[in-house]
Structures are given as C-alpha cells and as structure tokens.
Amino acid sequence: MIFFYTRYELPLAQKFITGKLKNDTEEQNFELYIITPATKFLGLSMGGGLVKISRLYNSKGELIHARKYSPEIKEEVKQLKKTCKIPYFRLWKGYLIIATLTLIAAIIFGINRKIESKAYSDQNEKLNTALHNLKAGQLYGATFFTDEEGNSINGLPQGWVKIEKIEGDTIFMKRSINVVNDKALFKMEDIESIKPVSENDWNPKVEKINYSLLKDKLADENNTSNDRYDLTYIGADHDKYSGVTISLKGAE
Fold first, then answer.
1. How far apart (Å, rounded) are the C-alpha atoms in residues 29 and 20?
2. Nearest Cα to 240, choosing from 160, 147, 159, 172?
3. Distance from C-alpha of 145 to C-alpha of 147, rounded to nearest angstrom
4. pLDDT higher for 4 or 223?
5. Which of 73, 84, 108, 178 could form a disulfide bond with 69, CB atoms 3.0-4.6 angstroms apart?
6. Phi first, then psi: what are they for 240, rounded to 5°?
C-alpha cells in the first residue's frame, strides 16, 4: 500500500549570528534556524511540533553539525528557542479537516437515509391504501417471478400491472411489456420511464390472480411485510404454476 506522506522541516525562527565554532580561533557569520519536524499527508498537515531543533549554516550554506557548536553558539540556540512558539494548530489541522469532512459526510448520509426512508414509507403506505380499495383501472409497480404464461424467467424484472376487472375471488390483470432488469431494489421512480401510455404497451395476456389470498394478507394484523404483496394464480393457471408469480411493491 502506498502512503502519500511527506516529512518536512517547519522553520520557527531565524537569526544571523557571529561566533566561533568549537576549537576555531576565528569568528564566522552564521545563519541560525530553529525548526520542528512535521508531516503532511496528501497535502494536509498531519502532525509535528514534538521537538525544537537547531540548524546552523555558514556563509557557504554548509550545515554545521551540533557537536561543533561552541558554548556561545549553544547559548544563542537556547535563547532563540525561547522566543519561538510551535504552531500546533497549523501542524495538526489536517486531522481537524478530516474530522470535519467525516462529520459533514455522516450528516449528509443521515439526511439521505431519512429521505430514502420517508420515500420508502410513503411508497408502502400508498400501496396498502390502494390495495384496500382495489378496483379496475389501478396501476401497480411489481416484480415478476414468471412470465405471463407462468414460465420461469431469469432474474427479477420490474414493471407495471393493471387491474382489468375483479370478479368474485379472481383479479384479472395485465402486465407491461417493457420491464427494468438492472435494479436490485424496487423503487417506483425506477419504472416511471417504462410506464405504459397506450393499450399497445400492455401484454395482451390477461392473468387470473387469487384475490382471496391477497385479502387474507391485507386483513392479517400480524403481517409485518407490508412493503410487498405476493400474488398467485387461481384456477387452471394455478394448477400449471402454484408459486408466486407477481409481487406488488408500489401503487401509482
């Protein structure tokens, strides 16, 4: 794994001094810096300021090792260190920025979750209201487990169904010709673009659905899965395929 860390030295103070190195007899001009080691990650300051370190350069720009400092130069270093403060906020603000961005992301995520939850709740409420007042002409969003002939199909395509009529314990319905195949979760907005606009957009096959089973589920006070209602065929079609054929998940 590659980490984009950068180690650098942050100057805290600078001063021109004149003095002798240890064991030297002649004075020289020096440029003295007090620095602190620091770290950046992806351009953000991510630490430093744990120690103050001197950097001494001669007139040629050569770095002088601390073991060559004379007592007077050491005193200059000591006094200069006292005058400079370490900017901890500047050095560690990367963590604050990351924490702030994380908090903002969490808030946005929470808001989006609430919006999605509200939309999902509204979708379920609308579905249940419509089914308790089932009538011809209503349109529902659905997931299909079989084709219109009761044959198994690949995947779980999503589309529309239309209530043609209701007679006794039988619901007569048609399904849309166009379906959506690339959605894992059901949302009414995902099938809005394929909503039938003419009779030619509906499959001509009229499917006969068991209304009694649907009414039993609607009347069941202990039913907790009110976000979908599974439908099965009735009569001869049920003899051909007895499993779930269509699952209603939304209402227009």
1. 9
2. 147
3. 7
4. 4
5. 73
6. -75, -40
